[in-house]
Amino acid sequence: MDSVKHWAELNQFNYQYIGDELFNYIPELLFKKTQAQRVIATDLARLKLLQSKLKDNYQTVIWCDADFLIFSPENFNLPQDSYSLGREVWMQYDKHNPNRLIAKTKVHNAFMMFRKNNNFLDFYTETAERLLTLNSGNIPPQFIGPKLLSAIHNIAQCYVLETAGMLSPTVIKDIANKGGEALTLFQNKSSETIAAANLCNSLFERNEINQQEMEQCIQNISECIAPN
């Protein structure tokens, strides 16, 4: 969070940290429906918050998850597009062949930017809210987040900020070890060198990465981009 705040200050942007009051932005019925799955509630609430800020006459609004690290702020620049999503290049081992690494290229909502009068935010928010309202069964964790965004992106080719990346556990482990097959493939599959990344704290909480690996990854990234 400090890295995002520092980046905002460098660019003379207003910075606001928001905690559980975020959930005040979603309808009570949907909050009750998703209260056991706070990730889903957060995915909708952030959209409502961003809509509210644009109505407050901000010209541009930006959302960054709490585990979104901006490690190269001078290279993390907003595009001129009316909106932008983050880029996910997810590295994982093939479940049918545990020795084979595969890359899945999608979009993510750990970083999102919307400018005033963009046409995407209202459409995305209304669609997400409608899907939640209509759903009567189990709701997957990324239902209205990366899953919905990637489905829309596959058809509409949304604007994407390629430098706003995401690091899967395999890549985090390789960065911590200063190299490896997953990191090499990640670099080859990424169209641009990332300047920031979502660190997938939810997977850390599920023990797919340990604290030492996460801390070493962040340290190694910081050392790589530090000025000589």
Topology:
Elements: H1 2-10, H2 28-34, H3 38-55, E1 60-64, E2 68-70, E3 83-94, E4 97-115, H4 120-134, H5 146-156, E5 160-161, E6 164-166, H6 169-176, H7 181-189, E7 196-198, H8 201-205, H9 211-225
Helix pairs in contact: 3-4, 6-7, 6-9
What's this model, at a glance?
The chain has helices at residues 2-10, 28-34, 38-55, 120-134, 146-156, 169-176, 181-189, 201-205, 211-225; strands at 60-64, 68-70, 83-94, 97-115, 160-161, 164-166, 196-198. It is of the alpha/beta class.
Give the tags.
4-stranded mixed beta sheet, alpha/beta, 228 residues, 21% strand
Strand line-up across the major sheet? 1-4-3-5
| SS elements, strand count | 7
- Count of individual helical segments: 9
Which regions are unreliable across 5 or more consecutive residues at pLDDT < 50? none
The sequence of SSEs as H and E is: HHHEEEEHHEEHHEHH
Rounded to the nearest angstrom, the distance between the terminal CA atoms is 25 Å
Average pLDDT, rounded to a whole number, is 93
- Number of structural domains: 1
The major pleated sheet works out as:
4 strands, mixed
Using only CA atoms, what is the Rg?
18 Å
**Main structural class:** alpha/beta
What fraction of the residues are assigned to beta strands by DSSP? Answer: 15-25%
> Helical amount among residues, as a percent range?
40-55%
Globally, the shape reads globular
Describe the structure.
- The structure is a single chain.
- With 228 residues, the chain is α/β, with parallel strands linked by helices.
- It has helices at 2-10, 28-34, 38-55, 120-134, 146-156, 169-176, 181-189, 201-205, 211-225; strands spanning 60-64, 68-70, 83-94, 97-115, 160-161, 164-166, 196-198.
- It has one domain.
- The protein is built from 9 helices and 7 strands.
- It has a 4-stranded mixed sheet with strand order 1-4-3-5, with helices on both faces. It has a 3-stranded mixed sheet with strand order 2-7-6.
- The mean pLDDT is 93.
